[in-house]
Amino acid sequence: MASFKLAALFLASSSVTNGFTNIIGRHNTCSPSSLASSSPLRATSQTQQQEHFQRSLLEARIAYAKQLKVEITDTPSSDENSETTTDYDDTPAPTDSSLDVTATQNSILRIAASTDRGQYAKPTQKDQASLLIKELEANFSPTPTTTDSSTSTSSLNTIPPQLAGTWELLYSNTQLFRSSPFFLAGRSTCKTSEQAAQYSWFCDMHRAALAISNIGVVRQVINSEGRIVNEFEVKVGSVPFLSDFVPFLRYSGGLPITIDGAIVSTADASPIEGNDMEWGLYMDTVEIKGSNVPILRNILDGDNAKLRSRDLSKILEDNVSMYETPRPVLRNTFVDGGMRIVRDEDDNVFLYGRVSDSEDPTNYDEVMADFGVLSLLEGLNDAVTKIYL
Fold first, then answer.
1. Cut 0.85: pTM above it
2. Which spans does this entry mark as compositional bias, Acidic residues (predicted)?
């Protein structure tokens, strides 16, 4: 009630002041003669009256402001459990989970693109990529596998949907072909660290000996049932030095004819102890597909051209007491909609990019066995001769 009285007093004082101001305004519009004839006593009385109303107005405003502040303070909130918008005590502090995953991935991909998937990376670039990869891995929380009595054994051996599909190798800190189950199985036969170091040296020398070849797409197709197919596409110059065949041509290069093919290895993957991010591999077959070499293509496409490693392992197990079938282990340390990071037992990194959800291996039947001569002639005709029938 007091607040209403103060408000009324405030309005009344304001109206009186306005009225008094209007009177003074009308008085000021009078002629100079009328101002001269005004009584000093009357002017003094008017001044006192003006000061009185101004003081009343100021007191009313101060009293009203004080009363309004008290009422706001004493008024309970409509929601006793509500919090004010200026209270930031409960705001969580930034943590490592605030990592910008996209920016980190882009930084890794820039290194991968400038070094041909890490093949020509300098030690400093590999160190930088390693730090970025570890940041992604540290902020990755895989969904644990839930099991109950109704879960069948076969369902536990399936691959999670986010891992199934077609992936291409984008970066590695080691030789690209070591992502193949065949070379992973070879590493798994090493029992000591010294043997592992020797195997790594062998892989480096193997790549150096085949430096004349170019590594194309390295693809991994993962089936939801646990079947893994690695496709390692290679291109080799078939006539490396033209002057050896045509001595009168002083040309340091070779003919634009290449030998193409894909080394395809397959294996079965099964989760280890219910962890669907860690797999044990059981090597199956190795074969060459999509060769463009005439005659040889027909032989390689035959079923007998496959290297059946399981049959070979069985023979060795039956005849060599110390031999054990290798079961290499792969750990998926990071995965999202477009990227997947895998580590082998030496902690080597293989970073893949998702290409599609397809679980079907590549069909190489359309590759022509002509050394690429037909496509070479087509290009020559389109660019030079331009003879069309």
1. no
2. 80-90
